[in-house]
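Translate sequence into structure tokens.
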Amino acid sequence: MGVTWRSGGHIGFDILSAAFIMAVVVLVAWRSAAAAARILPVEALRGGIKSHSFKKEHFPLERTRGSLSMALGLKSMAFNRKMYFMVGIIFAGIAFASAFSIITWWNMGINDDLVLKMTGYEISDIMVYKAPHEDYEELTEKIGAMEGVRKVSLYEMESLSVEGELLSCYVSDDFGKLEMVEVYEGNFPEYDNEIVVTGLLARSWGKKIGDTITVSSNGASAEYVICGLTQTMNNFGRICFMHETGLLRVEPYYEKNSIQVYLEPGLDIDTFIGAMEQSFRVLSPSVSPGNTGADMNSNTDNSTDSGTNAGTNAGTDSGASMDTGTKKQEALAAAKRKAEEKLAALISMYGVDSAQYALMVDGEVVLSGDTNDYEIDRIENNRRLFVSNVDSIADSTRMMAALIITGTVLLVVLVLYMVIKSMLTRRRGEFGIYKALGYTDRQLMEQIAISFLPASVGGTLAGSLAACLSVNRMASLLFEQLGISEMNFVVEPWLILLMAFALVVFAFAVSMVLAGKIRGITVYGLLTEE
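Result follows.
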């Protein structure tokens, strides 16, 4: 996203983080080890077995349907329900993080509509900037009448002081034509005394829809009524929207300079820009294959090449060749292109609105021009500009989702490894007795893996459901300082269910693999050790 990370010394923060983590570890370990104080000596002599147990028997073998491995696994889960409950909580946290990242990835990494709307920019196909002396309304009418143009609109930015803060104010003559910019509460301005601000600004000012605010520009001030609230990351949410007639109240000399052009679906934008540069006189034409500034000027100049050639041929000596005339015209065309490039740079660099040039040879003006003859200053592929920026956000989101999923996989493996290893150590004698009774290694592995299924399934479903219900609220809080007040992520149920199923299957597979260490437990080994 173009942000450079400069890392420096931060020992104080490192020590504080380490101290907090160690304090949590010590607290959890202390509370867990406190159970040792409740162990009676006689119970220790019996190897942890109490003489009587009055607890309810869960999943009795004679009445539990299914395989014996499943019944024993469920019985083990019920007996050690505190441990499995903690495992379920861990799975809920893992599922929550995974679901949150997948929903974010789906809405910001795959479908970019939401990101485009969050930017706060109106992304048309083409942006046309009129030449300084061209009539805006006449040019808009000409462009709108071109074949392939779906519609044209005004949408440009001015800087205004609103409630003492300098904001970017976006102006339009008809907000109903816009396709990307939206309000989440109220309506866009229709009258000259209405304004739309972001929810972030409204909260900071203590304002709501219907309240009035003061707008100033160049010493002029006026009161406006808030008619709607919007959200955007543009300028960190410090923007507003105003109708063209409303801007004229504080900027009476405001002039429209740009035209948003929307094309019919399926049309190639660069090809259409080339056609526009053939139809209009453009001061700074784009350089694209098959559409150079020379081609544009040769087709749009009032003094066409044929007329120039005719005048040249008429004035040449009868003995002059056609090649000499052609080379002369090519030299004049190159000089004209060079002069126009210099004029375009002059206007852009120094802010002048018109310029003239003349080329003299032997005291005779052979080439002259005036920028007042141009209709358009430049034409830009507006969609390419914004989509390329959005693609960087999408790439960052995909990377974030990949990192979270990778962390999830590692965490699942780590948690199950610690729990299963502890289980095998603690119940080593019990598993040896099962083997002596004839249980196979695979049956005991299935028993261990099945005992984790309820915790993994329940925790995964709970975490996924919590993520679906809270993702928009949490995302709104996350992006609030950037100007987003109400995030509207689309939650795809099939995608979340697929993620939950994959997580449970992966946990079961990992449990089976880790439980494979049970093969190292043998009856002979237990007898010789004792």
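Note: Residues 288-320 have pLDDT under 50 and may be disordered.
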